[in-house]
């Protein structure tokens, strides 16, 4: 075993980082307590980003790209969940930056859509936290980064153990109580620009066989733009009880309540004139979220580990606002002297699920291998009510006026049963293979009505049902080049289920293909990672993502209809292909030259992504002419760039760290992207379509620990130091519509205390 200090010093821990050869288990010798030795003072640090062990708990990661990020060891704005800082070392991370409250996290990699992280299987402590993992996989809830111990990101084949998604797994693991104190109290209070105030308060510890941890976080502010105020409250508690030496029971409960005012979108002309302005002051969003979970961990033997998770969700998504497309203004009607009534949309989610995972070490052909298996059962129900006529007021009010009825109303259900198995097979001390297979049974259904006739009766749509059995497979491999570096490669199948929005047409005249099927494809990657001489950490790889049967809408003649009669037809159209380079490195500049790790640290990191994401054969149609002279003009998107897929993303930073002080400067550069598949350059009048220019943004942050064991903690920073004006998203509806500007220059400063 080699012991080495961390390469990147975004903060401070009281642990030493060990690098283990990933192809074999290592034994750590017990310390000799019979001798005592006085050591000179050293700076003990932790790595902000590192790679998981080949078997991480009940998860096999060997042969796959993975990252483990520890937010508290990164100089970043944790208060507002600033993911361009927290996850800056993840190559190719695309972040939609339009929510100054930090409540909505929108991230993706490899050219996929960042919309509420829905291309990932998003989890907290290993259980689902999104609205519906298959029918509506948007993550309206995200934990505060101050409460997160580490972020687990598994891409490529590693995600096969958790679900079929192309993006892989994004899992937030929350803190637990102190193992060596009965009571430990943590408080952190932060102030910042635009009325920002954040208070995080936690208590935890271990009493006998019980470990506990609970936190309460309150965050409020007025936002960088007018009419952008927010108020967020988070509660969480977890209790781990060692029932026996081998059996542990964990119960936890998470609750979020919030009110977010949304300033709406801008046209391109408005953004150029003043990107800080707002034309909507009556738009609000609230997403109360309750997640109970119960976990059993059983260590049947030194070679057998069993984990059972049961979890639920009781949550809502409620919005009210004036959502007419730009350039419409939300102004007082001269005749009525009132604002127009607002639109009310409400979702209610009720989910229940369970996952059983087993990891078993087995001996075969003279070597020890690891088998991971699992079962999943899941049911989710969504009640969706849309386009209700709300009040003419400006506050958060979900009351309905007029008939008191919603124009659209549906009930969706998702049933999922799954099983997986993966085997970490050691062919030699340096070479391993990881074959895996996953089976999913999935059933979606939807029933309801879309609009009302003139007499008020419901325009019911045919009940929508989709049922299928999906078999996925993958293969990973890893070769230990040296004790601290390895080559990895893998291939894995994936699929994107038909979503609720695909089952129900946006208008009564639209037609859904009765044979509509899931989007399918695969991901393949190869890379080289590790560390070199204690001062360089790196991971460089190439990937290819093939996305087949993308769902879209075309206009076609009505079968059996009259001449010129057409219809919008939603069906599977074609594919996209994305490939590129992902490179990450961190270099300890001073120690690489001197070899003296008692000197201050000056660490440089860079995360670079170069990708090419284009449409293959993807037919589209447009309609020209009127009446009987209507003609359908066919074209093809082949060769067009995929939306929200920047060809180049670079994030780099420099950290100085010595003893109790750590200072980081970071620079991000993201290339130009398109908002639509047609790659429209010139923006439309409603600003929903058009190019999204490249942008650059710099951040500065620092941490200073004081007192015994760093009991006091001062932190602060400046986001967007040079006040760059840019945007990352054009929205078609909520939280727009139109351009959603990113925040300009803001600051934050906080004081923390641990007792």
From TrEMBL:
Residues 197-721 form the TonB-dependent receptor-like beta-barrel domain. It is found in: Cell outer membrane. InterPro entries: Beta-barrel_TonB, Beta-barrel_TonB_sf, Plug_dom, Plug_dom_sf, TonB-dep_rcpt-like. SUPFAM superfamilies: Porins. Residues 1-25 form the signal peptide. It is a multi-pass membrane protein. Belongs to the TonB-dependent receptor family. This is TonB-dependent receptor. The lineage of its organism: Bacteria, Pseudomonadati, Bacteroidota, Cytophagia, Cytophagales.
